[in-house]
Design a protein that fits this description.
The complex is a heterodimer of chains A (about 450) and B (about 475). Chain A has about 450 residues and is α/β, with parallel strands linked by helices. Chain A is about 35% helix and about 15% strand. In chain A, helix 6 crosses helix 7 and helix 11 packs across helix 13. Chain B is of the alpha/beta class and about 475 residues long. Chain B contains 15 helices and 13 strands. In chain B, helix 3 runs antiparallel to helix 11 and helix 11 packs across helix 13. Classes of the chains: A alpha/beta (about 450), B alpha/beta (about 475). At the A-B interface, helix 1, helix 2, helix 3, helix 4 and helix 5 of A face helix 2, helix 3, helix 4, helix 5 and helix 6 of B. The complex binds pyridoxal-5'-phosphate (PLP). The site of pyridoxal-5'-phosphate has 14 residues of chain B, from helix 6.
């Protein structure tokens, strides 16, 4: 099956208009010896019936939210997607457009991005937002250059309570740029403020914390801000669970200079890790450090309101090697989905999602901690994730998988000191019955 | 339609849409007891609307937009081909769309198999040994590819010495930006009068300080560089690596493999060549393929097959590490996989052949009316310019007038080495009728430029808004909605 409409007759007519005898002549610049002989060693074509069967069979080998209860979060969350979201986002006019280079025929995309920027500034408590980057981890990565523009320093201090994958990305990015990375440990599940104070200096460009942090604990972002600002460093706060912003204070209001993170929690399907949504917000004074597209309001030649991409002198197509980032394609469609989601659930809806997630997680915490041999790992306020010490994490995970549950994360894989500890997550999708079942399975594998 | 509002302007205090209930099926915890007040949110300024408001609002916005599903979108360098609907349907199946990136590999065998097989197919298509599927878009792939090269040279003890990346002056803006992000100095190599790499300039600039030569082939003029083997020889002779910006792979699919031409590294733009929807600016996916000597330095984890089981391998001591939180944009990978399986080896060859046939046909007819920047057989795209247009009509005017006729405009003012560039990429999924209609419109606009230049210079006339004031937008930035009075 292919999607080429040219008929043989039309192809001949076209070749004639070009003035060549065969398509081969159009490849005259390619060294003959290097051309593919015959066909590539790829499977033969399939009909839509066959390919649908193939993909359905592959999908059946994956546990998923439709077949399993999920108590796994750790940077990707199983939230509900209202039907209206894909219905609207999959309109071909949005879905099959590209970057709104021709503003006059892209007012739909441009207005939606303008709304997205407004949503994100409301949620983060900061003044400006860009039009999205790839995901939460790369959003955090982009702030390395942002912070450098603010203070021209080349050392980054990051808390060990930041998502381990995000820290890996930061290490990769910093290595390639020649920026030093210092990690700061944790105490009772939160960043160790004394250690942080000890390492932040007038060489530090940015301090990076996450709240709720990887363990689910709510960090004292205001403390981090104080420590960073005292030495002229910027505070970058990352959020991996967007829905937490329905309940928790906006990090921008607690002193963060950059609030960046993962917007997957805004009703975006988990998709095994992407495409997700990196959001980035900052203060007005730092707007020129933001990477990627920014949409602004203006007027047309007749004075009518309209929207365009703006402040493009930051970007690669204008500034080339002097641009603030290399980003070109972002995650426009996912930003659109999040925009529609946040508009649809609205103020009350997002608070309810957060309430539900909070309540389910706290119920689960209470039920699981009743089990003999199971203890809370930390004693801290949390949102919808929490860490437990269990007698045998491996055995527990296996029992849960057996019981049709996608199990909580085994923290030992990321923190060697946290052997036999599980990171449990709940959202509005976890029913009481599921939670009770989880408790029963965990109890049963003592 | 003149009263198109923002969703915030449709908000009514107290209105809800009730997608999520207040009722909770578990005993309640008092939030204020659990979390200190300081860390609880005081205000949340999201809109308050009902579902029907939302539907009408965004349907309204969609009508102000233009996608491939609406019509011809010859945006050069972006490969705006038709996006088959089966790909989206497959990606959305619960077994692909609702899987958690951290769920145990035992529970993700289908996803890992898909990634494993996709990597194999992409390796075959590009002529590379292995690929990472982690990068999220073309530019992210460039960064990953350049990092991989950097790590390779560090490993060889040449990390400090090799501090430069070379690229032709026709390169895409993301190329120099990616090299710079990775700490390299960027040096431009001139193009010659045929639009190819100036070999003398390359020889002069190539040295043992150069890590990588980044080249797009066919380049951003749509021209295949006939001296590619010589270029590779020059770069390799000084120990440098050949990097292929694979954004233009659509011209090569099934015809020639970049790996066979001497390239060591390539990034692909799956959203272009492998037909995943561009979504108003993304998402994309930018797998990076390398020759065997570079495999140890690719990001981790990689997908491996051990016996009949698929696993994620983290044990890669020389890897650059992660470039993205999870395994890549799986929702794009599953679409590309579906696409490749549908086309098969027969369909893949037709992609390259017809993309190039369509472009040459358009070029042959349009060159009679417009200045052709480089008079050579083109590949998947070609570049015209506004040189010699009557009455000072510019590329911008032509682009805007095309909107009046119901077409999307080509890419304009890129590449930078052609003054007033008009870069046209038809792709293989457009019919001769569509190409003819566009050609005739271009000819007509040329006539209008002669007979009624004001009409062209004042375009567009039929769109929802007229030409927008970009200077005002940048001078007085308004980047979010403000409640009245604020
Ligand atoms: C030639 C070329 N290289 C690189 C890129 C960057 O790809 P992406 O937009 O996916 O980051 C593009 C896309 O615009 C391109 O046209």
């Amino acid at each position: 099956m292919d999607y080429v409409p040219n008929t043989e007759k039309e192809s001949r007519e076209m070749l004639q208009a070009i003035g060549v005898k065969s398509v081969d002549e159009l490849f005259q610049d390619i060294p003959a010896a290097k051309k593919v002989k015959g066909l590539l060693n790829v499977s033969t074509e399939m009909s839509e019936v066959e390919v649908t069967q193939l993909l359905t069979d592959l999908g059946a080998k994956n546990a998923n939210a439709a077949t399993h209860a999920i108590f796994l979060g750790a940077g990707a969350y199983n939230h509900f997607t209202p039907s209206a979201v894909p219905y609207l986002a999959f309109r071909g006019e949005f879905y099959t457009a590209y970057t709104p280079y021709q503003a006059e025929v892209s007012q739909g995309t441009l207005r939606a991005i303008f709304e997205f920027q407004t949503h994100i500034t409301e949620l983060t408590g900061l003044e400006v937002s860009n039009a999205s980057v790839y995901d939460g981890s790369t959003a955090l990565g982009e702030t390395i250059a942002g912070a450098w523009q603010v203070n021209q320093r080349k050392q980054l201090v990051i808390s060990k309570t930041v998502h381990p994958h995000y820290r890996e990305v930061i290490r990769t990015y910093c290595w390639s740029k020649g920026v030093e990375v210092v990690e700061v440990g944790y105490k009772d599940g939160k960043t160790d403020w004394d250690s942080l104070k000890a390492v932040v200096s007038d060489k530090t460009s940015a301090v990076m914390v996450q709240s709720p942090n990887f363990f689910g604990c709510i960090e004292e972002v205001d403390q981090a801000a104080e420590i960073a600002h005292a030495k002229g460093a910027v505070l970058v706060t990352t959020v991996t669970e967007g829905s937490s912003l329905g309940l928790l204070e906006a990090p921008g209001k607690l002193g963060a200079d950059f609030v960046v993170g993962e917007g997957q929690g805004f009703g975006i399907p988990m998709m095994y890790g992407g495409p997700y949504l990196g959001f980035m917000a900052t203060k007005k004074e730092y707007v020129r450090t933001l990477p990627g597209r920014l949409v602004g309001k203006t007027v047309d030649s007749e004075g009518k309101e309209g929207y365009v991409m703006t402040l493009q002198a930051r970007e690669q197509h204008i500034r080339r090697e002097r641009s603030v980032s290399n980003i070109c394609t972002n995650t426009g469609l996912i930003a659109l989905m999040a925009t529609i989601y946040l508009s649809l659930v609205g103020r009350q809806g997002l608070q309810r999602v957060a309430q539900q997630s909070f309540q389910k997680a706290h119920y689960a915490h209470a039920q699981l901690c009743k089990i003999r041999g199971v203890q809370p790992l930390f004693n801290q306020p949390f949102y919808n994730e929490f860490a437990l010490r269990v007698p045998d994490a491996k055995k527990a995970s296996e029992a849960m998988m057996e019981a049709g549950i996608i199990p909580p994360l085994d923290l030992g894989a990321y923190y060697p000191e946290l052997k036999n500890c599980l990171l449990v997550c709940c959202t509005e999708m976890n029913s009481k019955a599921q939670i009770d079942h989880l408790a029963k399975v965990l109890e049963g594998c003592r | 339609m003149s009263d198109v509002k923002l969703i915030y302007e449709r908000s009514v205090p107290g209105r809800t849409s009730n997608h999520i209930t207040l009722k909770v099926d578990v005993p309640l915890t008092e939030v204020k007891q659990a979390i200190p007040a300081k860390y609880l949110r005081k205000e949340l300024g999201l809109p308050e609307v009902n579902e029907v408001d939302v539907i009408r609002h965004y349907i309204g916005l969609s009508k102000l937009n233009y996608g491939v599903d609406n019509g011809f979108y010859p945006l050069g360098s972006c490969t705006m081909k038709y996006n088959p609907k089966v790909n989206d349907a497959m990606a959305a199946l619960p077994g692909h769309g609702l899987i958690h990136p951290m769920q145990p590999v035992e529970m993700s065998q289908g996803a890992l198999q898909l990634m494993y097989e996709l990597e194999k197919d992409l390796a075959e298509i590009t002529g590379m040994a292995r690929l990472t599927l982690q990068p999220a878009a073309g530019a992210h792939g460039e960064l990953t590819g350049i990092m991989t090269a950097k790590k390779y040279f560090e490993h060889k003890g040449e990390g400090v010495q090799r501090n430069t990346v070379l690229e032709p002056d026709s390169s895409h803006g993301t190329n120099p930006a990616s090299a710079n992000m990775c700490g390299f100095k960027v040096v431009e190599v001139k193009s010659n009068k045929n639009g190819s790499v100036d070999l003398d300039d390359l020889r002069a600039k190539m040295s043992e300080n150069v890590a990588v030569f980044m080249l797009t082939n066919p380049n951003t003029l749509g021209l295949f560089d006939p001296t590619i083997e010589e270029i590779a020889k020059i770069v390799h002779a000084k120990g440098g690596l050949m990097y292929c910006d694979g954004a233009n792979l659509n011209a090569n699919v099934g015809i020639v493999r970049p790996g066979d031409l001497g390239f060591d590294i390539i990034q692909l733009n799956l959203h272009k060549t492998f037909s995943t929807p561009h979504g108003g600016g993304g998402p994309g996916s930018g797998p990076v393929g390398v020759k065997s000597h570079l495999v140890p330095f690719l990001p981790k984890p990689s997908v491996e097959k051990v016996g009949e089981k698929y696993t994620l391998d983290y044990n890669k001591p020389h890897s650059i590490g992660r470039v993205k939180a999870f395994q890549g944009n799986y929702g794009i990978l599953s679409r590309a996989y579906t696409y490749i399986k549908s086309l098969g080896r027969e369909g893949l060859r037709k992609v390259g052949e017809n993309a190039v046939l369509n472009a040459n046909y358009m070029m042959a007819r349009l060159r009679k009316h417009y200045h052709l920047a480089y008079d050579r057989v083109c590949q998947h795209e070609f570049v015209l310019s506004d040189e010699g247009m009557p009455n000072g009509v510019t590329t911008m005017d032509i682009a805007k007038r095309l909107l009046d006729y119901g077409f999307h405009s080509p890419t304009i003012y890129f590449p930078l080495i052609v003054h007033g560039a008009i870069m046209i990429e038809p792709t293989e999924t457009e019919s001769k009728q569509t190409l003819d209609a566009f050609i005739e419109t271009m000819v007509r606009i040329h006539g209008e430029a002669q007979s009624n230049p004001g009409l062209v210079k004042g375009a567009p006339h039929t769109t929802f808004v007229k030409r927008l004031d970009a200077v005002k937008a940048a001078r007085e930035p308004v980047l979010r909605w403000q409640p009245p009075g604020k």
